[in-house]
Each structure stands twice: as C-alpha cells, then as structure tokens.
Amino acid sequence: MTPQLLGGARRWGVRASLLLVNLCHRYVDETDYEYSEFAIYDLGQAVAHLTIHAESMGLSVRQFRSSDRDAVTSELTVAPGWEVATMAAIGVPPEALRHTPLNFRTAVPCRGNDGR
C-alpha cells in the first residue's frame, strides 16, 4: 500500500507497522436508497473505537485520507458498493513520543446563545 500514499503520509506512513484500509458499504443493493447516508458515520465510529482499543494496548493510530483511493480500490479489487474512505497507520509510537506526556489544551466552557 505504501506506493499509494500521497503528500505527508509518504514520510511517516512507510514506517507504520500496519496500514489499514477503511472501507464503507456506501451503496447498498436491493434498496430504494441512492446511497447509505450513515456509512461514513458508522465507519468513523468504528475507527474511533479501534483507536481507543489500540491506545489501551500501547499502540498509536493515525487516520488519514492522503492516498490514491482509486489505485487502492483497484489494487485490492474492492467489491461494487464498497468505497475506500480513509486509511489508518497503526504501530508502536517512536521512542521519543512514548514517554512524552500528552499536551491537552485547557478546556474552555462553552457559552450559550445568550453569551452566558
């Protein structure tokens, strides 16, 4: 899959332990629907849960879209109705990042429409 990576993904994607292609069942046969409007949402939830589980195992996940999706579709012979949406690089984070505390931004309370 590494030849299909584009842009910045070429710099770090080749070092990932695993490149995962995230597919969604976008067009469903035998329905009156033009497409499944929830397919991308469902895939996003699945990747989010994968990310949480991987992090609990000491792995790092980076979801990205900078790939040649047509070439990936062709190389994997993706079935009709399915669509390559994104990819995810999964692996052990570089040593420099393993023991670095996460730098979360300070939470700022949301304001309502009335400014309070």
UniProtKB/TrEMBL annotation:
Name of the protein in its database record: Nitroreductase domain-containing protein
Species in which this protein is naturally found: Flexivirga alba
Upper taxonomic lineage: Bacteria, Bacillati, Actinomycetota, Actinomycetes, Micrococcales
